[in-house]
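Our preliminary data section would be incomplete without showing what the modeling component actually yields. Below, a chain of 199 amino acids is followed by its predicted structure, encoded as tokens that our downstream tools consume directly.
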Amino acid sequence: MKQAFAAVGALVIGLVLMSGCGADQTRTFDGQMTDPRDGQTYRTRVVGKLEWMMENLRFATDTSWCAPQDSACAMGRLYPWSQAMQACPEGWRLPAIGELGEFVERFSPGWRSKANGPRQAFLDLEPLLQPAGFHQPWTGRFVDYGQAATLWTSDEFGLSAAMGLVWSRPHETVEITPLSKEAGHACRCVRKASDSPVR
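Predicted structure:
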């Protein structure tokens, strides 16, 4: 797993600055949304100021993949970053790095400050993530299906990478780390909670 992520340029990042802390950040409501483009329905959850898709996006773009073990794309599609930035339905978008960090913090408080925080976050996030693995289009390989969940953010890291979340079953850890823009990773789209009917 470490070697695989090294191949896509992963570099562990330390603390990610949080923003917008306060009582509002603890609100949680469940709902659903239907993507008008293909009729697929997703469970959603309002956490603080954002409504999150609680399933990986399954919308087919010009360049996106499903793992061979997942012919129905039940785990969601895998997108290169340029496609991921355009894949969310109208009114939705990829989360920023700080927003993704806050999402993890909501379900695993202190994960960035405690010595065992990354492992605790691995355990806390396991019921919330879909381990679709990731795709290396330059080799044609689908890596770590069932063993890793990876999610894009909207934040770039230099010219060839963007930030993303990596949940690793073999290493029992969670990282927010740079990922190669060319690799295929999953998407969880967000929108302002004020735009959601679930309030």
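The first helix runs from residue 2 to 7. Residues 1-27 have pLDDT under 50 and may be disordered. Preliminary results of this kind motivate Aim 1 of the renewal.
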